[in-house]
Description:
Elements: E1 5-8, E2 14-23, E3 27-32, E4 42-47, E5 56-66, E6 77-80, E7 83-87, E8 96-100, E9 103-108, E10 112-117, E11 120-129, E12 137-141, E13 144-148, E14 153-156, E15 161-172, E16 175-182, E17 185-189, E18 196-197, E19 202-203, E20 207-212, E21 218-225, E22 234-236, E23 240-242, E24 250-252, E25 275-280, E26 284-290, E27 296-303, E28 308-309, E29 312-313, E30 327-332, E31 335-340
Antiparallel strand pairs: 1-2, 2-5, 3-4, 4-22, 5-21, 6-7, 7-8, 8-17, 9-16, 10-11, 11-12, 12-13, 14-15, 15-16, 17-18, 18-19, 20-21, 23-24, 25-26, 26-27, 28-29, 30-31
Amino acid sequence: VLADGTFTDDGGTSYDYEQTISILDGGVFAFGNSDNDLDDPALMLTLTTSKTTGLYNLIVTFDDAIPFNATDSVGETIELFGKPYTVGTATSATKLILLGGSDAETIDIGATATLTVADEVYTVTLNGISDASIPVASITVNGETKTFEEEQTKSFAEGDVDVFVKTIFRTGENAGHVEIQIGADKLTFETATEVLSGADDDEIDGTLVTIGGPVDDMTKLTITVAAPDNDENHLLIGESFIDPVFSSVKINFASVANGPIFEVEDDISTTRTKLSIEKGGNQELLVTATDASGNTETLPFTFENNTADDTDTIHIWEGAEIAEDDYFILNSGTKQHFMQMTTLRLTAGG
């Protein structure tokens, strides 16, 4: 059960909301090789890559419509799926922009603060603030300097960390401060598009946004989540799928109760001849066998799921009805023969 929440704007108006997770039909328990991703078939949970089908929906339902792009809403905090976010000033009637941070600080001009994100330490200095009508702050992070306007997010350390400047406040010559968040997790939501992440608005593959009502009168936010591509469309036992948007939801394929156990046992027979079946290209299976004289041959066994030579069937089990030109295997003692039925004559009475 997810916690309910309340969003309070700058004017003191409160909006209650509910958070739910709806499980969809995009995950199926199966035994296979996941479109040839695996060398050997295995028990797995297949994950759809279709955003219209989806694995699950993340849903936020507001009791009353919220104007997220209103002046009173911008800059206020909302907690979604366990993580706090600030409503960005770039939020419009069609786009909701949320900015989250792992560490935050208010820094005066000339001062330096130390902030920590995921065990990495960052030294942040506010060098100065311009006296322009729209003030610009010069900020240095671990020796790398960039300029910011209020509510801007930029990447440092070759994209490893984002810095969000929430406010810039200049009080005079060489006086003032900024509020910053480092490790800022910028998310952009717009109906019928993927969730966008970070300062560069990178698409989060496998996601689809649906907004109930426009952003300036929002009643519902739905995020459909699917596997990002065919390379990540399955889970083996012990593997997990972590939600790519909030990282607070996980599909964990922990175990299979009373499931079959697949074991490979050594053949201790000293007289039995081994036969191997291997993949040949993308369309056929090959059979390799050694006869009593020590001759080894490899033959095509199936082609495109057919056990036939043109229209002539290869029969592989005892008791099958064999038609003219069909193939079959005949055993006689220690001898085996691959034969074709070409002619059949029956005498009267037998």
